[in-house]
From TrEMBL:
Segments forming domain Helicase ATP-binding: 287-461
Protein name per its UniProtKB record: Probable DNA 3'-5' helicase RecG
CDD domains per the UniProt record, alphabetical: DEXHc_RecG, RecG_wedge_OBF
Keywords annotated in UniProt: ATP-binding, DNA damage, DNA repair, DNA-binding, Helicase, Hydrolase, Nucleotide-binding
PANTHER family the record matches: ATP-DEPENDENT DNA HELICASE HOMOLOG RECG, CHLOROPLASTIC
Length: 733
């Protein structure tokens, strides 16, 4: 009897176990059981052959039409060429060997149907056409044609097709899984029987049977439903436990104090808060006055005005005698926050200085690379408590910075921050838990919010401040060269009116391996491509020719932080007309006088990146213009993506689109540490209902039985998940 932890070699023998371990990273019975078929074929149905792509590893079902052997002319030997078809397209199979002795010749006569597995390659034929082939494919005969015609039932039989690896027979995985299934002993079902009955779900053993050897499509459907549920459910149990545990922790309440620095700040605010800002402000204020730490996610589209909400929360904490830390993902953004917060606070940031207001505090900046003297002064202000607000990069809390009394941590623009990192962050604070507010401008689809950020409460800033003008977005395509010429003219016109312009390129372009933050999903989907434009390649052309006479500054990640700060400052102060940059300006940069965003090789960026970049303009009362320069051809996937970005400025719509376009692994991989390995069937695009239901059930179960004492099998499942997650987190750290 095999249970899930049993090593595979005990069940399958050393040889097969070795190949599975090496080629597919499968080590235990559980690993192999969770190695689900990639797809299913019927015997009666052939694989469409013209959809196959070069370099793809495929398993196809096809019928032999022609068998031809010939001796090679230039070298001794014999090649057997077999042509197979799906009824429309053809594929050539070639086997090399000695004449007459070769098995495929006997197995694969015309009319035979078989599975063939191998890597697709292609070569040009004399007539110029391209022939696709499989060299030395593995094969497995499923039957001759007459038999297929005879029995409908037989033709409907479902054949699972597994992701496979070199050195395995075509049906080796199916056979191995069969062996496991025949002697499987799962013990008690981790999901409570009552829940299964109520939701009409099958047992786990039956589900594994159904996904690996389904008798019919209904059985497969039931199996998938159950296994999907488990993936969502165990994850939600983990999150529910985390929420419950966090809610039970003590924290120092920081209720509003009338007449303090927050009130003074509200009085000097130059604009009215939006309804959304007011409402979220209330939610946050209420959280802060509780005896348990706030764990809140604030979502708001680019430009929604999250900073003010965060700053007001920080001031409430300062009024309560505590300190607040604001963590930004980049130095550029940290510096900008420091500048703008100091600016917004004015005399309220000048405690201990002449002209400082009565309720004033100080705002310290801490970055990894600032000068020793400045750093020392800042550290002192932080440790003594005279700085009520501390702005820094995420490194801030890892640097053993001593706070006098840290009450609130605000994490800005953090969509690439997993649950584990958030835990680590909270644990950095000795002697009590701070309140935590996480802000993201990349709108998160509900499903992602329920999983990746499932341990947080969520607030949404749904509307932009009034008086924002629209941003127009245009694609500048290769088939309209005049548009590109017009782009440079337009930049000069804007500059002549005193406006400012961003130009963004995918890479720096001075050396190899720079910060070309090109998303994998955008890579090569429309064929091979030249390397993307670098700012250092573009700079001389701008200076000497395209934008001659304009004041151009350069910003990228390789610059010294002081230089970055200086460039941003000069741009902010209007001393530069053009900022030529990489995506270091992607998030948060706020210069209201900037009106044009030109993105070169825009197709190299993902949808949310483009949306973020576009959000750098149209921030004041001035109209924004965003130009997406591309040489992607009309009709290509890349062009569709750009057209979508041009068609709407609704970040939530774009994020759903983004999720649909990207592969699951990318989303999960980028959005969080871990998890991806435990999600096999569940997809964030399509399974919102499952995730939602699982969340409700998991929350109820954990509230009734926080330690899962009554559910030992479920507790064991959970332990496995948490282990996997921790392992991945450690790998990444
Ligand atoms: P994001 O949510 O993208 O971080 P910011 O907080 O940077 O947006 O705000 C964008 C701009 O809008 C800033 O210049 C900010 O001062 C301004 N702003 C914020 N709230 C309001 C408001 N209620 N009315 C007018 N302008 C506002
Ligand atoms: Mg921001």
């Amino acid at each position: 009897m095999a249970n899930l932890d049993e090593p595979l070699h005990k069940v399958l023998g050393d040889k097969t176990a070795k190949v599975l371990a090496k080629g597919l990273d499968l080590h235990t019975v559980g690993d192999l059981l969770h190695h689900y078929p990639r797809r299913y074929a019927h015997r009666g149905e052939l694989t469409p052959l013209n959809e196959l792509e070069d370099g793809e590893h495929v398993t196809v079902m096809a019928e032999v039409v022609k068998v031809q052997g010939r001796s090679l002319t230039r070298s001794p030997g014999y090649v057997l060429e077999i042509t197979v078809t799906d009824g429309t397209g053809e594929l050539k199979l070639s086997f090399f060997g000695r004449k007459g002795s070769y098995v495929p010749e006997r197995d694969l006569s015309p009319g035979t149907r078989a599975l063939f597995a191998g890597k697709i390659s292609s070569y040009a034929m004399r007539n110029g056409r391209v022939q696709r082939q499989l060299a030395h494919p593995q094969y497995k005969v499923v039957a001759a044609r007459d038999a297929a015609a005879a029995a409908q039932e037989w033709a409907d039989e479902i054949i699972p097709i597994y992701p496979t690896t070199k050195g395995l027979d075509i049906d080796a995985i199916g056979k191995s899984v069969g062996l496991l299934l025949d002697q499987l002993d799962l013990g008690p079902d981790p999901v409570p029987g009552e829940l299964l009955r109520r939701r009409g779900m099958i047992g786990l053993t039956e589900a594994y049977e159904g996904i690996h050897r389904p008798a019919d499509w209904e059985e497969l459907g039931r199996a998938r439903r159950r296994l999907k549920w488990d993936e969502a459910f165990v994850l939600q149990i983990a999150l529910a436990q985390r929420r419950l545990a966090a809610a039970a922790l003590p924290a120092k309440p920081r209720p509003r104090v009338p007449g303090g620095i927050l009130d003074a700040f509200d009085e000097r605010l130059p604009f009215d808060l939006t309804d959304g800002q007011r409402q979220v402000g209330e939610e946050v204020a209420a959280d802060l006055s509780h005896e348990h730490p706030m764990h809140r996610l604030l979502q708001g589209d680019v430009g929604a005005g999250k900073t003010v909400v965060a700053l007001r929360a920080m001031l409430q904490v300062v009024d309560g005698g505590g300190q607040a830390a604001l963590l930004a993902p980049t130095e550029v953004l940290a510096q900008q926050h420091h500048r703008s917060i100091t600016g917004m606070l004015g005399e309220l940031a000048q405690a201990g200085q002449i002209g400082g207001a009565e309720q004033a505090t100080r705002v310290a900046l801490l970055t990894g690379s600032q000068g020793a003297k400045a750093r020392k002064a800042a550290l002192l202000d932080v440790a003594s408590g005279s700085a009520g607000i501390v702005v820094g990069t995420h490194a801030l809390l890892q640097d053993h910075v001593q706070f006098a009394d840290l009450g609130l941590v605000v994490v800005d623009e953090q969509h690439r921050f997993g649950v584990e990192q958030r835990d680590a962050l909270r644990e950095k604070v000795a002697g009590g838990r701070p309140h935590v507010l996480v802000m993201t401008a990349t709108p998160i689809p509900r499903t992602v919010a329920m999983t990746v950020f499932g341990d947080l409460e969520t607030s949404v800033l749904g509307q932009l401040p009034a008086g924002r003008s629209a941003i127009q977005t245009h694609v500048v395509p290769p088939e309209r060269p005049a548009f590109l010429a017009r782009t440079w003219e337009r930049i000069k016109e804007e500059a002549a009116q005193g406006r400012q312009i961003y130009i963004v390129c995918p890479r720096i372009g001075e050396r190899e391996g720079d910060e070309g933050d090109v998303p994998a999903a955008a890579d090569g989907e429309d064929g091979p491509r030249r390397s993307p434009l670098g700012i250092m390649e573009l700079l001389p052309r701008l200076e000497e020719e395209l934008l001659a006479g304009l004041r151009i500054g350069v910003l990228h990640g390789k610059l010294h932080p002081d230089e970055k700060d200086a460039v941003m400052r000069r741009f902010g102060d209007g001393e530069l007309d053009v900022l030529l940059a990489t995506t270091v300006i992607e998030v948060g940069v706020d210069v209201p006088n900037a009106t044009v965003m030109v993105i070169m090789d825009a197709d190299r960026f993902g949808v949310s990146q483009l949306h973020q970049l576009r959000g750098r303009v149209g921030r004041g009362s001035l109209h924004g213009l965003c130009l997406l320069v591309t040489d992607a051809e009309p009709g290509s996937k890349a062009r569709e993506r750009l057209d979508a970005v041009a068609s709407t400025t609704d970040g939530f719509r774009l994020s759903r689109l983004d999720l649909e376009q990207r592969r699951e692994g990318d989303v999960l991989g980028a959005a969080q540490a871990g998890r991806s390995s435990s999600l096999r069937l569940l997809t964030l695009q399509r399974d919102e209902d499952v995730i939602h239901d699982a969340r409700a059930e998991a929350t109820a179960l954990v509230e009734a039985d926080p330690e899962l004492r009554g559910h030992p099998a479920l507790a064991a499942e959970l332990a496995v998940l948490l282990d996997e997650e921790r392992a991945e987190y450690l790998e990444k750290a």
